[in-house]
Amino acid sequence: MRSVGEGPEVAVTVSTIMRAAFVTAEPGETLDSARQTMRMARLRHLLVTRDDRLLGLISYRELLERLLAKAEVGAPVDRRKVEEVMTAAPAFVTPETSLAVAADRLCRYGLGCLPVLSPDPGSPSEAGGIVGIVTEADLLRAAYARRPDARGPAR
Questions:
Q1: Helix/strand/coil (H, E, C) string of 60-90?
Q2: How many Cβ atoms sit within 10 Å of the Cβ of residue 34?
Q3: For residue 125, with 0-12 CB atoms within 10 Å meaning exposed, 13-18 middle and 19 or more buried, which class applies?
């Protein structure tokens, strides 16, 4: 993105909008516990980790769909585990990924967020540790803020 008269367009990267603070869930955690965490922290996504390694992610919508589906058939929902419903091995980005590529991945895979992983210096196709998260709202906010006519939130 560029402003008029600034010269060639420079790709804006995920590092400029990602959230370095994120909340995680353990794979063996109950769905009810994950739901409470999301509700209290006012989040729609949790990264599922074990030993600081990304295993998957779970959205509030997925969680509620699973809880409601099980409740309808009379199955005990309080003992279901996060690992049973999480999206395993989700798509991800690195801090250097352009916002355009991140937006494309969100749309292509039907996700509401992407984990941001540090690049693995040993292999360009592998990823390192979790360094953040980028959501649909983050991308929308960034796109709106860069518009020449953006004036901030309505009051």
A1: HHHHHHHHHHHHHCCCCCCCCEHHHHCEECC
A2: 24
A3: exposed
pTM of the model: 0.78
Q: Which domains does the chain have, with CATH numbers?
A: 14-145 (3.10.580.10)
Q: What is the pLDDT along the chain (155 residues), one digit of tens a residue?
A: 444 445 455 678 999 999 999 999 999 999 889 989 999 999 999 999 998 889 999 998 888 887 777 665 555 656 788 998 899 988 999 999 999 999 999 999 888 999 999 886 555 555 678 999 999 999 998 888 766 655 555 54
Which pair of tokens denotes residue 12? 């804006």
